[in-house]
Amino acid sequence: MNQKQKAEKLKALHEGPGIFWIPNPWDAGSAKLFASMGFEALTTTSAGLAWVIGKPDGGVTREESLANARMIVDAVDLPVAADLENGFGDRPEDAAQTIRRAAEVGLVGGSIEDYSGNPQAPIYDFTLAVERVAAAAEAAHSLDFPFQFVARCENWLHGVTDLDDTIKRLQAYEKAGADVLFPPGLRSLDDIRTVCQSLRKPVNIVMGPPDYRHSIADLAACGVKRVSLGGSLARAAYTAARSATEELLGPGTFTYIKSIMTTADMNKVMTG
Length: 272
What we know:
This protein has 272 residues and is an alpha/beta fold. The protein has helices at 3-15, 28-36, 46-52, 62-75, 92-104, 126-141, 163-175, 189-197, 216-222, 232-249, 263-271; strands at residues 20-22, 42-43, 80-83, 109-113, 148-152, 180-182, 204-206, 226-228. The model has no long low-confidence stretch (mean pLDDT 97).
């Protein structure tokens, strides 16, 4: 598929019936693995990439993010979107430029959040936040293919557990041109349902917190369109590696080998 065809496929997933999963690869290899399992689209994880290059979540630069995204795009014949953090700058122009750069590396979708990075004021002022979304949406919609722009409200990840403000922001982002709305951190099905009922555009919910027990059926019943996995799959991979090395350093055994993919399995995935 060319970029336009990938974009049209991702758009169709958002407009079609039912709910869909979109896993988050952290590198080209994990992207190939998820593609081999039959997923129809992928979206990157900024946290997973940060850990790959030995940084904490939030420490990735725009250049690092886009270079990683290009490798993932080149590795699979699927629509790929990206976690573009806060657009890598505070100004609306920064958000717009990040969307344009994302398109240049082959991405057909991407999210920008309203987290400022400032611990004293973690969420951008409402007016600035809306201006940033509007600029990013304008850049996305000026492309010659339907780039799926996702606007994220980060309230619940940064201690602002205010459902009314979250809905107010998401509605404003929707009006400003976002194609998909994303409130990470919501936990209760009642809150998720209320958000979905308050919006007309598709809503993304991320799985990840250890206490998150909702099923895909639960989320579908609330009106969720898309479910992403954030950095949880990357964490699962690192956890497996830690467990294996703990076995080596503890009892000195190698039983983990019995349950892992073989080299032949891995090579099949990478050449498929």
